[in-house]
Design brief:
Elements (H helix, E strand, L loop, with lengths): L2 H23 L14 H7 L9 H15 L13 H6 L7 E8 L12 E7 L10 H15 L6 E4 L2 E7 L4 E7 L2 H13 L10 E4 L11 E4 L2 E4 L7 E11 L7 E5 L9 E2 L1
Parallel strand pairs: 10-11
Antiparallel strand pairs: 1-2, 1-9, 3-9, 4-5, 4-6, 7-8, 9-10
């Protein structure tokens, strides 16, 4: 291929795949590829979308703008933890674990805050790392896709109330921070439906703390500079992003479903 043909091919691919990420991030705006450049958030989207006439340099500038200026991907918080392989070396074989990840929409995140997130996990008690097969992972992926990706992704509200659902026999030790018991029960039933398990109210508990939610705690001086104080159980709506399957003996989780564009090779995409 001549360089120009290579670029035309790559640009077509980027406009299909990369622009989809941009549209997803700005999902509160029109899905058109020619947003209004005279209004704030719409103009920001326009500065990220790759157009059919863009040169290689212009496309690179727009991608850097999206990832490093808008999403601030280079400023992701440090994580205290360990790799899967080192964790597995320090523990005994465990049951396969499914994890559902939820995240606050970018449009609703305050400028100086990180998006609110939620994780819900459960164990596949009838499987082991030696018995589980790809066909079962695919079945789970399809079920999760059908339950959690409809209507732009299942969402629920987070709050200060702690609700738990403990059914050890079936692999559930769910903990949710929600504004009401009703919200928690709805979410739990959704999770149980992945394996067609019935909800049992005997396994449900809730606790309402006396302390109120703190969404705007103000600022304080740390290391000579002004930083935001930590929020306490902030209220926010979180939306389903992806689901993974962690199997003992594998260095990487199996990505079951991904509607966020975070992972390649998901068994199911939306």
């Amino acid at each position: 291929m001549a360089p120009s043909r290579q670029w035309n091919f790559l640009k077509t691919w980027l406009r299909k795949v990369y622009n989809k990420e941009v549209h997803e991030y700005f999902k509160d705006l029109s899905p058109l590829d020619d947003p209004d450049i005279n209004s704030g958030r719409s103009a920001t989207k326009a500065a990220c979308l790759i157009a059919a006439v863009d040169s290689q340099n212009m496309a690179l500038l727009k991608m850097n703008n999206f990832y490093y200026v808008v999403q601030k991907s280079h400023l992701k918080p440090a994580i205290f933890g360990q790799t899967i392989s080192s964790y597995q070396e320090s523990t005994v074989p465990y049951k396969p674990q499914v994890l559902l990840y939820f995240k606050q929409d970018g449009a609703s995140v305050p400028n100086d805050k990180e998006p609110v997130t939620a994780e819900i996990s459960f164990r596949l008690v009838k499987e082991t790392h030696k018995t589980i097969e790809p066909i079962e992972a695919k079945r789970l992926a399809t079920k999760i896709k059908n339950i959690f990706t409809l209507a732009d992704g299942y969402k629920f509200s987070k709050g200060k109330i702690i609700c738990t659902y403990k059914d050890i026999e079936n692999g559930y030790q769910i903990r949710l921070y929600v504004p009401s018991d009703t919200e928690a029960v709805e979410v739990i039933k959704k999770v149980l439906s992945i394996q067609d398990h019935a909800y049992n109210d005997d396994f449900f508990t809730s606790h309402i703390p006396k302390k109120d939610t703190i969404n705007n705690p103000g600022k304080e001086t740390v290391y000579g500079r002004l930083v935001s104080k930590r929020r306490w159980r902030p209220t926010a709506i979180v939306r389903f992003q992806y689901a993974t399957l962690d199997i003992y003996g594998l260095d990487q989780p199996i990505v079951l479903v991904d509607r966020s564009g975070t992972y390649w090779g998901a068994l199911e995409r939306t």
